[in-house]
Amino acid sequence: MCFPMRRPTPWIVALAAALASCAPRKVEPPKPDGPFGESGIPPQLRAKAPEGGTPVTPGGNASPAQPAAGSAAFTPEEEIVFTDPDNPDATLPELSTLLTAPKRRGPWEESETTAKQRAAREGKPLLIWFTDSARSPMCKALSQELFSTPAFEAWASEKLIRLRVDANPQLDDPNLSLDEKETRRADLRNYVTRLKKQYKVLGHPSLFLLNPSGEVIGRYRGYKRGQADFTWGLIKQGEAASASAYKEWRAGLEKKGYREWQDRKGRKILAKLTGYSNGTLTLIEPDGTRSRTHENKLSDADRAWIDQQKKLRGIR
Fold it and tell me: What is the pLDDT of residues 135-162, one digit of tens each?
């Protein structure tokens, strides 16, 4: 639902005037001493659309020719639309809720929505495996010779997000009634049919590798016994290409004021700060997802960065 623009409250006008990144007067901020400049925190991506830019230098968010990422990262007031001028962030979800990952039973996700969300936020490519666990001997061979091996599991846990789409999904929830199980089976069949049509799956096994943005960058159809190393090599090649594209994409966003935030539990998110009031921050991810959090829930490095930006601009 869209709401009409209302006259912003005085604190927003004052903050925007002091912190707007598009102000004509250029301010050269001091070189940051927090972990987002020289910390060595590895860059991670939560996004959906590729953009150009300069690759990120390992060890921080600032490229050599640019000031520290996010040093002037506040969105101009005219770009912000509030639903409640007296409490503009009242309806925004809490950041910690968005960062809490749902529990899963194994290394493979079962929900396309969850898998794509993780890929976008963690900056990892998504591997989708279309399988028929009941009727395809080659699907069983692929699982035994590659996907179930400790070596692949260790590598994929670090490099990929994985989604398994089984033509014969199993329901083992004892809390479901017979009617609920039948309804659930019908929903799963429709879900599998939709995905197979979307990706034009003609047989099993079929593998698809997607960028964090959702773009298909690799299609691998079929499998023969003894081809585990060959198939793994194809997946590795696609992952490397995706990682290279991700660095350019992220560098472009950092030039626009996005930076990596971390909460007290070490969970990270790439976002731009669009509002600050009495310790409460409003953040927006590259895909447009907005959330709010309090600075006390952020890492010490983030709190130091906020204090630095406020001092830099004479804000108490």
Answer: 999 999 999 999 999 999 999 999 999 9
Residue 25 scores a pLDDT above 60: no
**Beta-bridge partner residues of 291:** 283
Q: Which of 273, 274, 253, 251 lies closest to 261 in space, CA to CA?
A: 273
Is residue 250 predicted with pLDDT exceeding 60?
A: yes
Location of structure tokens 């900056």: 123
Whether the pLDDT of residue 257 is over 80: the answer is yes
What lies within 8 Å, CB to CB, of 233 at 6+ separation is: none
**The whole model's pTM is what?**
0.62
* Total structural domains within the chain: 1
In a domain, 144, yes or no: yes
- Using DSSP's 3-state secondary structure scheme, residue 96 falls into helix
CA distances from 266 to 116, 134, 158, 263 (A): 21, 40, 16, 5
Domain residue limits at 212: 106-249
Report the distance separating Cα 16 and Cα 23, nearest Å: 10
Residue with the two structure tokens 């993780």: 118
CATH number of residue 229's parent domain: 3.40.30.10
Q: Is the model more confident about 107 or about 64? A: 107
With beta carbons less than 8 A apart as the criterion, state whether 285 and 273 touch: no
Instruction: Say if 64 falls within a structural domain.
Output: no
- Summarize the confidence of residues 170-175 as an average pLDDT: 71
